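Revision sheet: structure tokens.
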Amino acid sequence: MKISPTIVVLAAGQGRRFGGRHHKLAQTLGDASVLSTTLAHAIETRLPVAVVTTAALAPLVADQIARRDTIVVSDADAERGMGHSIAAGVAERAAAPGWLLLPGDMPLVQCATLLAVAEAMDEHPIVHAQHRGRRGHPVGFSAELFSELVMLTGDEGARRLLARYPAFAVDVDDPGVLVDIDTEDDLEAVRATVS
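Predicted:
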């Protein structure tokens, strides 16, 4: 039986560029929140899923995912940047053969895209989704990069690893791999596509 990579949904960021009164991941998108929509696409793959988040945001996913699959980091650790969130998620799922990193503010990434990246991980240590020649998310890392992933810190996430190692691009017909929500204008643009 093949062991599948784990999708790690990164949802501990502070979302400072978003000007709303509430966190960007808590904003409504259709009948759900931004984060729960992203998570729903991950769950739809039937791959293992873990969410790295803060105590304040954990209730957004409590009805979708088991508590054991919710990795809560402190606010102080969340302040340390995406690199720390990646390290926390990978460390908690150390036995996985690899990890697909999916930012929680990317609710348009399709289930088929996640599966295509996961499949390519059988052959390549680093894989990313690509739409019309532009690199997007998710980004998959095989277990051979575990020791480097768990040492990540800061806001640059895994960019250093992508700069140091060759990455295989999986071409997908999914513009959602390029769409994240950083500002209120971004949120309104995403809402327009799902209504």
